[in-house]
Amino acid sequence: MSPFPRVEVLHPADRTLGWSVFVLLLAAYLAVFAGLPENPDAEVEFQTTSALVRRQSFALGGTPEAEAILAIEHQGRQGYNVRRGGPGREQEFFGWSGVAQGLVATPLYVVGALAHELLPAYEERHRATTHMGVARSEYFEHLFVGLRNPLLGALTGALVALAARRAGARRGAALLCALGYGLCSFAWPQARGTLSDVQATCFLFLAFALAQGALERLARAQPARTAGLLGFGLALGGAFLTRPVVAPGVAVLAFFFLVSCVRTARPRFPARELALALGPALLCLGFFLWINARRFGDPLESGYGGVVGSGWFLRSPLPGIEGALLSPGSGLLWFAPGILLCLPYARAQLAHGERAPLLLAGALVLALGVPNVIIPSWHGAWSYGPRYLLPLVPFLWFPLGVALERARERWGVRLLAIAALTLGLVVALGGVLVEYTTNIDLSLQAARLEWPDAPGAPEANEQEQEDARFVATKFDWRFATPWAHWRILRHRLAGLGEQFPVRELYFLPRDEAVTPAWEREQGFRHIAWVDLHERLGGPSWPGPALCLALLVLGVGLALRALDPAQP
């Protein structure tokens, strides 16, 4: 019986396999990436990065978009995810997002600023347009910061491949497993966007992968690499600084490493390894407390305090559990059906008496899953799929590599794998070919027609009525998100324009039509390359050419990694 999740020695060919997954997923992600922020929360996150570079401050300001956000907040209206500063900073506003979201994007912002200087004509055209009634600015800075999620999403897929190899999957199965994660789950629609969940997911799973590498060396009586140990701690700290709500998952991984490290290093106590691994995470915690005190005057205030009420977690968990797992609008089993394949893996682990991997998975489900299904916003609001559960998905997905090995011998597992991955691909494609904000906009317009008085909130104020309608669409099969996306796509491909009859789109017994409210939501302008060509008059070839080059490179690396001559 293994005292920790099984780790296998990785060969150079396995690293080539990881690179092939990274390049192949990056090709797919760049083909449809958003570039510009797709919702108000994402714009706030970008403005934080912009302020860090331009003003060396987390306080928003200095751009037309930032000034528009501040104007709303100064009027006392809660329009964006920002909060007024603490004592001495009452006239400054800071984003709620974790500070690491802004810090990690700063190198990409700098590259965008260089492109801005080299190609000023595009910036001039960009500034001549508006979005949501606000003048635009910093086109290339927005565009390059928008590359963060495609890069980190592709990296997560590569780490899934390596984790599957360490779990015992052959390279072919590990490749299919990783591409399945990247293309057959809502990880793809999330990676093309700009919100923070992708970064938090990457850092958490990177910490797990680095822990696997360190434990593998300790199991062979070799010293763990210093870089890997420091990277583990920084990855844990980075995940927490990106989304503080993943703190329980960070704690689980830290405890997992501590226990596994002590057991593996016996009879000596691994003081060096624990100090190098946990020290950076504690430093990140110290930075978190310090920056909170600087911004809000309270080390424990990260910006959410004015929004999360005392009853935020004191509610029945059943609606959230049903909604986050099963609902047609946000259910995990619809948006990442491949995780069902972890069940054959779990059964095999139990049969062999290896319970530690299952204990880790169970602890992560409790730490990352339960807190996010008992809150009122279990659906993730601006999202395609249950984005708050994304950090959990890679941990439940990499065992799929081992399950795919067994699929060659068991027709039931093979049939389940084909069905789950096919369904996941169809759901993911709908999420990237149609902007998720388009369907949210159209579904809410239709919901106002169907439910003038929102279900469950007959005497609520206007915002509560709207929230109740939004939740109702998540459970109503007529509004099922994946299939609504495909109906929107079919309507557009048929050349029927941007007027969508609610009878055809959502099967409502009415004759009205709904139209996307903003230019960004119309046609395929949510794709950066299309926006560059149609709105700014740029060339249409760079995107396809880059993606084709990456595809060829990725296939070449995959063939090299799968060469039977490789050890």
How is this structure best described in words?
The protein is mainly α and 567 residues long. It has three domains: 40-145, no CATH class; 154-430, no CATH class; 435-525, no CATH class. 63% of the residues lie in helices and 2% in strands. It is built from 27 helices and six strands. Strands 1-2 form a two-stranded antiparallel sheet. A two-stranded antiparallel sheet has the order 3-4. The chain has a two-stranded antiparallel ribbon with strand order 5-6. The longest helix is centred in the middle third of the chain and has 26 residues, at 271-296. It is globular and about 70 Å long. Mean pLDDT is 90; it is low at 1-5.
Write the layout of secondary structure elements.
Blueprint: H1 12-32, H2 40-55, H3 64-74, E1 82-84, E2 93-95, H4 99-104, H5 106-118, H6 120-127, E3 130-131, E4 134-135, H7 139-145, H8 148-166, H9 171-183, H10 187-191, H11 197-219, H12 226-242, H13 247-265, H14 271-296, H15 318-325, H16 332-335, H17 342-351, H18 356-373, H19 393-397, H20 400-407, H21 411-433, H22 436-450, H23 462-475, H24 481-493, E5 500-501, H25 502-505, E6 513-514, H26 528-536, H27 542-561
Antiparallel strand pairs: 1-2, 3-4, 5-6
